[in-house]
Design goal:
This protein is mostly helical.
C-alpha cells in the first residue's frame, strides 16, 4: 500500500483512461533517490493490469492494456536499444498476435528481438523504425503501456527511439510512463530528450508523520510513540526508502518503537542505504563530489563562499553542484545548509581518501583563520587531521585551548594541546612549553596526569625561572606521584633561581611560592616545624599581604604553626583572617597553598567569613568547568560546616566532593574532609570508596593518622575495644614523632581516653584526658577546649562533672560549633537536673534550639524528651536583624560581597559577618539555600525594599 500518493495515482489513472480512448501521453515521475518513484510506476502498471474493456465507457474496440516493463541500469548503457529490447522481447515470446504485430514495416523488429543480444550488431535506422511500427501495430489490438524505470540510465538508441515514439502517442492508444532521478548527471534535460515532451510530470513529496507512524506499525508490529515517530521522521526527512531501511535496521537490532529508543535512531545507518548512496556519489561529476566533501569537512550551516573556496569552485559551479546535491536528496537548506542525514556523512567519508581529508581540513583551518573565524572553529579542523602541523597551526591550537579554558571546557582545551604536542620534537623547548601548558589545563580534571607531564617537561625547560613556574603550576592538594624527588626539584630550582641573573618582576613571588611548597613538603620534619616561629618573625608583626607569594608562604607557615601548636589559636586565626581579606575569591586558589587556610581556620575555630568566600569560589569553579577545583572547594565547605557543627550538611558536601571526580583523582583535601566527617558522624563506611593510603604530591602525617583513627573507630564498633585503643594510640605516637602536637588536627588522646573509660581503665583514661585538656587549653580554640572539658567531665565522674560542663558551656559560647555546644548543654542538664532544675531546663531549651539550628535531630529529640512534651514549644528560626535581612536579600539577588559592601558603604568583612550570621540563624550552609530559607520564613521581599527599623551605618558614621 502506497502512502500519500493518491494525487499522483489519480493523475496516472486519468492518463491511462485517455490512452485507452485513443489519446496517449507521456507520464514522467521525477524526484530524489528513495522518494518512491518506482513504487508509483509499479502502481501504474497494476492499474493498467486491473483495467478491463468494460470499464472504459464508450470504447469502440477492445482496448485492454498490455503492460511492458524495463529497468535501465548504468552497466547496460553500452547495449544499443537494450531498454527497448526489455520492453518488447516478452511480447514476441508470448504474444498471440506476434505475426500480425511484426508484419509490414515492423518485420525487421522480429528478427532483431529474436537474435542473440550479445552478438555484435549495427544500430540502424531501419531497426528503430521497425520497433516504432511494432508498437503502433500493437495499439490496434491492445493499449500498450510502456513502463521504464530510471530512464536516465537508458542507452542512446532507446532514448532516440522513445523520443520518436512520444511524438506519436498523442493520437494513439499508447501510454509511456518513466521515472527520472533528480540530480543524476544523466538525468539532465539536454541528455534525456523524451522528458521534454511529457504531458504529465509527477513529483512525489516526502511522507508526513502520520504515514511514518503507519509504516512503523507495518514493519515493527506496534504503533510508535510520538517521540520515536518524530525521530524517524527527522532522521529520514520523510524519504520512504530511507525510512523503510531504517525500520528494517531497527527490527534487526531489536529496537522497539518506544520513546526511550528515539535517541538510538539517529545513530543507525542501514548498510543497504549506505551502499546506494555510495553508488550515487561515485556517478557524480568532480565538481559535485568536491562540494559534498567540502560540506562534510565544514559541517552544518557552512558559509557558501567558504564552501566554494574550499571546493575550488567559482560561485556558478558551486551553486550548480549544490542544486544537484539537493535534487539527489543528499543535502537540505531549509534550516541551513547541511547534509541530509548520517548515512550521507558516512557515504561521503567512504569516497574521500584519508590524504584528501587531511588536505581539506588543513585548507579549511587556514581559510577560516584568514577569514577571522573563532579559534575553536579553526582548532576543530586541526584536531581532525593526522598530517604534520606547521608552527602557525600549533599556535592556532594553543589559541583554541585558551578560548576553551575561558568558556569553561578544560577537557576540550587539553585535546587541542595534545594534538599540538603530537608533532613537537622530542627534546625541544617547544615541547617543554606545550607540556607545561597541557599540565596547567589537565590539573583541573586529571591532576595525576598533569604531574607526569610536568615531570617530563622539567629537564627540557631552558631556565630556572621556567622550571620554577612549572613546579608552582602543580596543585599541592592533588593526588599523584613522580619518579623524581619533588623535594630535590624544589630545592634545586630555588637555589638556581636565587643565583640566576634573570630579574623578572615576579621572581621574588616565585621564590616565596617555592619556599612555601618546600616547607609544606617537609612538615613531617620536626626541625622544619621548629623553624616556623623564626621564619614568621622575619616577616614582621604585620606580614605583607599584597603578593600571592607572600600570602602562600604565610598560609604555609600558619599551617606549620598550627600543626606544632607553636602559636595560639587566636594568633593563627587573626593572621588567617588577614589573608582572607586580601585573597580574591576564585577557583584558582585551589592550585596554590591557600586551601590550607581552611584547615587552619577549622583548627582555630575561626571560620567567620569563609562561607560567602567559598560560595563565590565555587561559582567560579563551576563556570570554569574544573572538576578538581569544584571538588576541593566542596571539601573546604565541608570542613567549614564541620567547624560550625552542621554535620549533616558537612557529610553531604564531603561525599559530593569525592563524587565529582574519578576515584583515583580524589584530592588529599577531599580525603581529609571525608575522614574528618567520618570521625564526627561515626560512620566509617563513608571512606570505603577512598584509596588507602591516599597518596598526594605533598604528604604529611595527618591523613595517615586520621585513617588510623578510623580503623580504631571500626574496631570499637566491632566490639574490639583493646584493638581500638591500640589504633588510637598508634595515631598519636605517629603524630608526636613528627612534631604534630595540636589536639585539633587528629585528637588521638581524645578517642583513646573515651575507649579506655568504656573499658573501665579509669586511671589511664583520666591521664590521657588530662593530657588532651592541657594541650587544648594551650592551643586555645573554643571548640577544642569545650570538647576536652566535656570529655574530662565524663571520665572523672559525677563529682566534678557540673563544674567542668559549666566551664565547657561557657567556653563554647565563643565557638562556631553549634553541635558541640548543644551536646555539652545536654550533658550539663543531665548532670544538674536533680539539684538545679531551672538551670537544667534553661540548658535543655538552649540545647534544643541549637540542635534544631545545626540539624541534629537526635540531640533535639533527647532534649525534648527531658523537657517533657508540655514544656517545649517548636522553636522558630532566629529573627534576623534589619541589617542582616537587607544583606541577605541583596545576596540572593546575585550581588557579590564587595558589591553589597560598596552599595551599603560598609566593609566587605562586615558583609561577610552578616551573611555568616544569616546562615546560622536560617540553618543553611550558603547562598544556594538562603533564598529558600528566607522565602519559607516570609522574609523574602521581591521588590527589594529595605526593611523598616535599624539601618546599616556606613563606616565612619557615629
Amino acid at each position: 500500500m502506497l502512502h500519500e500518493r493518491q494525487n499522483e495515482l489519480k493523475v496516472a489513472a486519468e492518463a491511462l483512461r485517455l490512452a485507452v480512448q485513443g489519446s496517449g501521453s507521456l507520464v514522467v515521475i521525477s524526484g530524489p533517490p528513495g522518494i518512491g518513484k518506482s513504487a508509483v510506476l509499479n502502481e501504474i502498471g497494476e492499474l493498467a493490469t486491473r483495467l478491463t474493456v468494460g470499464s472504459v465507457a464508450g470504447s469502440a474496440a477492445p482496448a485492454r492494456p498490455l503492460v511492458m516493463r524495463a529497468y535501465a541500469a548504468p552497466a547496460e548503457r553500452d547495449f544499443p536499444l537494450g531498454v527497448a529490447r526489455q520492453l518488447l522481447e516478452p511480447v514476441v515470446k508470448s504474444g498471440p498476435f506476434v505475426r500480425r504485430w511484426c508484419s509490414g514495416p515492423a518485420r525487421p523488429a522480429l528478427a532483431f528481438l529474436q537474435s542473440d543480444p550479445e552478438a555484435p550488431r549495427q544500430h540502424t535506422p531501419t531497426t528503430t523504425r521497425a520497433l516504432l511500427s511494432m508498437v503502433e501495430n500493437i495499439s490496434h489490438d491492445r493499449t500498450p503501456v510502456l513502463l521504464v524505470d530510471d530512464l536516465h540510465w537508458a542507452d542512446e538508441g532507446t532514448l532516440d527511439w522513445l523520443d520518436d515514439l512520444v511524438q506519436q502517442v498523442a493520437h494513439r492508444r499508447i501510454l509511456v510512463a518513466v521515472t527520472v532521478c533528480e540530480g543524476e548527471p544523466a538525468a539532465e534535460p539536454p541528455v534525456i530528450r523524451p522528458v521534454a515532451a511529457a504531458e504529465y510530470t509527477l513529483l512525489p513529496a516526502p511522507l508526513a508523520a502520520t504515514s511514518v507512524d503507519a509504516l512503523i506499525l507495518d514493519h515493527l508490529g506496534a504503533p510508535g510513540d510520538a517521540e520515536f515517530t518524530a525521530a524517524c521522521h527527522d532522521v529520514t526527512r520523510g524519504n520512504p526508502r530511507y525510512l523503510v531501511s531504517l525500520l528494517q535496521e531497527c527490527r534487526t537490532h531489536g529496537i522497539a518503537p518506544v520513546a526511550a529508543a528515539a535517541p538510538q535512531v539517529a545513530g543507525l545507518v542501514p548498510p543497504a542505504l549506505r551502499r546506494r548512496l555510495l553508488l550515487s556519489l561515485r556517478e557524480q561529476p568532480p565538481s559535485v563530489l568536491a562540494t559534498a566533501r567540502a560540506l562534510l569537512i565544514l559541517g552544518d550551516d557552512a558559509d557558501r563562499q567558504v564552501l566554494g573556496e574550499l571546493a575550488g569552485l567559482d560561485p556558478v559551479d558551486r551553486d550548480d553542484s549544490l542544486r544537484r546535491l539537493r535534487r539527489l536528496g543528499l543535502i537540505t537548506w531549509q534550516d541551513g545548509l547541511r547534509l541530509a542525514h548520517r548515512a550521507v556523512h558516512e557515504a561521503i567519508e567512504d569516497v574521500t581518501p584519508p590524504a584528501e581529508r587531511n588536505r581539506l581540513h588543513l585548507a579549511a583551518a587556514a581559510l577560516l583563520r584568514y577569514r577571522g573565524s573563532t579559534p575553536e572553529e579553526v582548532g576543530g579542523h586541526l584536531l581532525a587531521t593526522t598530517a604534520p602541523l606547521d608552527d602557525d597551526a600549533v599556535a592556532a591550537l594553543r589559541h583554541a585551548a585558551g578560548t576553551a579554558m575561558h568558556r569553561g571546557a578544560p577537557r576540550t582545551a587539553a585535546r587541542y594541546l595534545r594534538r599540538a604536542l603530537r608533532d613537537a620534537l622530542p627534546h625541544s623547548k617547544a615541547r617543554a612549553r606545550l607540556l607545561v601548558e597541557l599540565a596547567t589545563v589537565e590539573r583541573s580534571f586529571a591532576p595525576s596526569v598533569a604531574v607526569r607531564h610536568i615531570a617530563q617537561a622539567f629537564p627540557l625547560l631552558p631556565s630556572p625561572l621556567a622550571r620554577a613556574e612549572a613546579l608552582t603550576a602543580l596543585t599541592p592538594v592533588s593526588p599523584g606521584t613522580t619518579l623524581l624527588s619533588l623535594g630535590d626539584l624544589l630545592r634545586q630550582t630555588a637555589q638556581e633561581l636565587a643565583a640566576s641573573e634573570e630579574l623578572p618582576a615576579d621572581r621574588g613571588s616565585l621564590e616565596l611560592r617555592l619556599e612555601a611548597r618546600l616547607r609544606y613538603l617537609c612538615e613531617n620534619d620536626p626541625a622544619v616545624l621548629a623553624s616556623t616561629l623564626d621564619r614568621l618573625a622575619s616577616l614582621g608583626e604585620r606580614p605583607e599581604m599584597s603578593g600571592s607569594g607572600q600570602r602562600e608562604l604565610l598560609v604555609t607557615l600558619l599551617h606549620s604553626a598550627t600543626a606544632s601548636a607553636t602559636l595560639t589559636a587566636a594568633e593563627v586565626g587573626a593572621l588567617a583572617r588577614r589573608v582572607l581579606d586580601h585573597e580574591p575569591a576564585s577557583a584558582a586558589h585551589v592550585h596554590t597553598m591557600l586551601p590550607l587556610m581552611v584547615s587552619v581556620a577549622l583548627s582555630a575555630d575561626s571560620v567567620a567569613g569563609l562561607p560567602p568566600w567559598l560560595d563565590t569560589a565555587l561559582q567560579d569553579a563551576v563556570r570554569r568547568g574544573g572538576r578538581l577545583e569544584e571538588s576541593v572547594i566542596l571539601s573546604e565547605q565541608a570542613l567549614v560546616l564541620l567547624a560550625q557543627g552542621r554535620l549533616t550538611a558537612a557529610r553531604e558536601r564531603a561525599v559530593k566532593a569525592c563524587s565529582v571526580v574519578e576515584t583515583e583523582e580524589v584530592s588529599t583535601l577531599s580525603a581529609l574532609a571525608l575522614v574528618m566527617v567520618t570521625l564526627r558522624t561515626r560512620e566509617p563506611e563513608l571512606i570505603g570508596s577512598l584509596p588507602e593510603p591516599t597518596r598526594g604530591l605533598y604528604e604529611n602525617c595527618r591523613l595517615p593518622g586520621l585513617f588510623t583513627l578510623v580503623r580504631g573507630l571500626k574496631a570499637e564498633q566491632q566490639h574490639e575495644p583493646g584493638m581500638a585503643v591500640e589504633h588510637f594510640l598508634d595515631a598519636g605516637y605517629a603524630l608526636e614523632r613528627s612534631g604534630w602536637r595540636n589536639p585539633m588536627l587528629a585528637p588521638a588522646e581524645y578517642w583513646a581516653a573515651r575507649a579506655l573509660h568504656r573499658m573501665g581503665e579509669v586511671n589511664r583514661a583520666e591521664q590521657l584526658s588530662a593530657q588532651h585538656l592541657e594541650q587544648a587549653r594551650a592551643w586555645g580554640a573554643p571548640s577544642g577546649v569545650g570538647r576536652a572539658l566535656a570529655l574530662q567531665a565524663t571520665v572523672t565522674g559525677k563529682a566534678t562533672a557540673p563544674r567542668l560542663l559549666r566551664e565547657a558551656a561557657q567556653v563554647l559560647e565563643g565557638s562556631a560549633d553549634l553541635h558541640a555546644r548543644s551536646m555539652v548543654l545536654l550533658q550539663l542538664a543531665e548532670a544538674v537536673a536533680s539539684r538545679h532544675a531551672a538551670e537544667a531546663e534553661a540548658a535543655l531549651r538552649t540545647s534544643y534550639e541549637l540542635a534544631v539550628e545545626c540539624g541534629a535531630p537526635q540531640v533535639a529529640a533527647r532534649a525534648q524528651e527531658m523537657l517533657g512534651p508540655a514544656a517545649v514549644a517548636v522553636t522558630a528560626p532566629a529573627r534576623l536583624t534589619s541589617a542582616e535581612r537587607m544583606v541577605a536579600q541583596m545576596a540572593v539577588q546575585g550581588l557579590t560581597n564587595q558589591a553589597i559592601a560598596d552599595t551599603l558603604g560598609v566593609s566587605r568583612r562586615a558583609v561577610e559577618k552578616h551573611l555568616t550570621s544569616c546562615y546560622r540563624k536560617m540553618s543553611t550552609s550558603g547562598r544556594s539555600g538562603l533564598a529558600d530559607a528566607l522565602e519559607e520564613a516570609g522574609l523574602l521581599d521581591p521588590a527589594g525594599e529595605p526593611p523598616p527599623g535599624d539601618e546599616i551605618r556606613p563606616q565612619g558614621v557615629v
